[in-house]
Every structure is written in C-alpha cells, then in structure tokens.
Q: What sequence folds into this?
C-alpha cells in the first residue's frame, strides 16, 4: 500500500463486494468521520465550550463523566446509527443500543479514552472493535478472536488513526486541510528489543508478586537479570501508551491488583482490552492477562474489566512465565546476586 493513500481508498479496497466487509468498512469510515469532528472539538477545548468538568453523572463503571465524554459518545453513536448494526456497546452507555438483529456487525467503543486527563491537555483517543453478528446469539459474548476489525484514534499533536482488519496494522494521519486520513505507516511491526516499561507504579503495594518481580527486574537494570537499563513511561492514557508501543516498542501493564474492584485491573474488555490486543498481535506483539492470551477471553457483561499486558513478545512472555511458573524469578535471582558480587 502506498504512503499517502486515503483511508476511504483503503476501506473501499478492503470492502470489495462482500456484505460483511462492506459493513465493516462503512463502520470504520463512520468512526473516522466522527473523529474529525472530535479532533476539532478536543483541539478547541474551552474555545468550543468544553470545560473538561464533571457532569455530575457517572458511567456504568462508576467513572465520573465529563462534558467531553458525553459529547464524544453522542457524536460516535450518531455516526454509527446511520449504518446497519446489530448492537452498539459504548463505555458511556449502561446498556446496549440495539439495531437490526440481522445486520452483519456489532461495534463496541470507548468514545473518549484517557478522559480523566482532558483538563491537562494530554493525548486522548477513541477506541473501537467491530465483531460479526450472529442472528440468535447474544452480541458481545464471543471471545476477542472473532473481531473483524479494531482501531483507535489518538488526538495528540497529530490526530492519527490506527487500524487492523486482520491483515497487519496501518496508521493514517489526519490531513487537516483536506479533512481526510492519509496512510503514513503500512504493516507496522513492534520493535523487539526496546527496554521500556509502563505501569502505574503508585499501585506497587497492591500488585501480585509476579508483577513486582518483573518491575524489580527492570529497575535493577544492567545490574539485574535482564542486564539492561530500562526506561519507565506512564502517560495515563491507553491510546497514547499503545501508540508509543507500536512506534517504539516496550511493554505496558495494567494488571489486576488487590484494591477493591481492581481484581481484573481497570481497563474494560470489550472496548479497550480486546481491540488493543488484536492490534498489538497484528503488529507482531503479544497481549496477555499475565496468565492467558487476552483474545481468548469472552465477556460476561458489557462493561467487564480485564487485565492487560501488551507489547513486545519477549517481555510479555517473561511476565507470563513469572505468573505461571512460581520458581521463575528465584531461578534468575542467584545469577543476579552473583553478578552483583563480581562487580564490587
Ligand atoms: O488512572 P489510572 O488507574 O492509572 O488509569 C489509567 C487508565 O485509565 C484510562 O484512562 C481508562 O479509560 P477511560 O478514560 O476511557 O475511562 C486509560 O486510558 C488509562 O490507561
Ligand atoms: Mg478508556
Ligand atoms: Mg472513555
């Protein structure tokens, strides 16, 4: 695919004459169109009447809803409602929006990810997952492996849309003058050896031992079992973290922890964890709960949470090993101590 190709050309090439693909392509186009409006709104902030203030309401997961959460939800929902869909699941809506039960697809989305940071002028985004509809089967009950397409938009210094239709990952950047997305990277592959990790370290005391062991290994740097100095990043915005991993590599962790309500972490399976896992795997990376592949999970309710550990496979594999083999950390620890001794 040529650089500069527009998203509309890409989706129409993918759609061909297959009705399900046409529905997927139309949904991607609709979200992209809505995101151009969202990009304007977010870019203008207070000048467009957006205060970033709480609305006095909470979403289904208990998060405080901001004016921009509500506005973004209205815009994305309205764009998708013009198309044939069986069901829509939004972070900001307690229940599903039901459409035509015989339509070929359903869509789950997080209209505004990272919104707790909106008043600090940080990167936020929109995440989506498109799944096939099977008439007679409850929507959003299948594992993440059934996804037909997934993507996210980052509203950063550039507005960019990352997408997979199951054949690699492509990135498009918004050409603000022409108001179209143009391809800037085709078949993105996650760099393999980047020594970077991202986790909210303020939760250290609540983590399980395998997560502590991994972070200890990273912090020990060149003196530790990984024999490399690591850099730490935490933006607090999943879309920005995912974009960084696709560009620069490394690993991101939002594990389960012992805080009340956080046994499965913070991120929601259908519209955050499944789409990110699909994208990261399609870019040659791994996505795990720490114990199993995230795409094998099925949701029992639409706002269900799931742990997410994603990034380059060597790091995700190491974290899985630390979870699944209780002796893995102690096997490397003596070596680490010995090397320490040799150094003094
Ligand atoms: O504040 P915490 O616990 O570090 O959580 C940060 C995470 O929460 C999120 O903001 C959750 O998404 P929403 O903003 O859509 O609720 C992620 O973007 C981010 O990775
Ligand atoms: Mg989110
Ligand atoms: Mg959100």
A:
């Amino acid at each position: 695919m040529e650089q500069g190709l527009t998203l509309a050309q890409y989706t129409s090439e993918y759609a061909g004459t297959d009705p399900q693909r046409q529905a997927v392509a139309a949904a991607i186009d609709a979200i992209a169109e809505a995101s151009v409006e969202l990009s304007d709104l977010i870019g203008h902030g207070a000048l467009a009447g957006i205060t970033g203030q709480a609305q006095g309401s909470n979403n289904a997961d208990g998060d405080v809803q901001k004016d921009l959460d509500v506005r973004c939800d209205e815009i994305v929902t309205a764009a998708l409602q013009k198309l044939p869909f069986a069901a829509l699941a939004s972070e900001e809506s307690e229940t599903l929006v039901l459409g035509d039960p015989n339509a070929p697809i359903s869509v789950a989305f997080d209209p505004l990810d990272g919104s707790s940071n909106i008043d600090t002028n940080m990167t936020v985004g929109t995440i989506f997952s498109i799944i096939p509809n099977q008439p007679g089967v409850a929507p959003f009950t299948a594992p993440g492996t059934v996804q037909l397409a997934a993507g996210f938009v980052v509203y950063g210094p550039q507005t960019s849309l990352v997408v997979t239709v199951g054949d690699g990952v492509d990135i498009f950047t918004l050409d603000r003058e022409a108001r179209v997305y143009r391809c800037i990277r085709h078949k993105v592959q996650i760099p393999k050896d980047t020594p970077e990790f991202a986790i909210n370290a303020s939760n250290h005391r609540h983590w399980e031992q395998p997560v502590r062991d991994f972070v200890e290994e990273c912090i020990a740097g060149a003196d530790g079992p990984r024999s490399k100095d690591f850099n730490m990043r935490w933006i607090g915005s999943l879309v920005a973290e995912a974009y960084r991993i696709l560009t620069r590599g490394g690993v991101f962790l939002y594990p389960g922890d012992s805080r009340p309500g956080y046994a499965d972490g913070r991120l929601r399976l259908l519209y955050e964890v499944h789409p990110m896992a699909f994208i990261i795997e399609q870019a040659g990376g791994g996505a795990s709960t720490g114990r199993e592949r995230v795409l094998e999970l099925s949701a029992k309710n639409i706002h269900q949470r799931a742990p997410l550990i994603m990034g380059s496979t060597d790091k995700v594999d190491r974290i899985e090993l630390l979870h699944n083999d209780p002796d893995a950390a102690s096997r490397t620890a003596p070596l680490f101590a010995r090397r320490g001794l040799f150094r003094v």
In short: The chain has two domains: 7-185, 196-343. The mean pLDDT is 93. The pocket of 1,6-di-O-phosphono-beta-D-fructofuranose (ligand 1) is lined by residues 63, 91, 110, 113-116, 200, 236-238, 266 (CB under 6 Å). The CA atoms of residues 172 and 183 lie 4 Å apart.
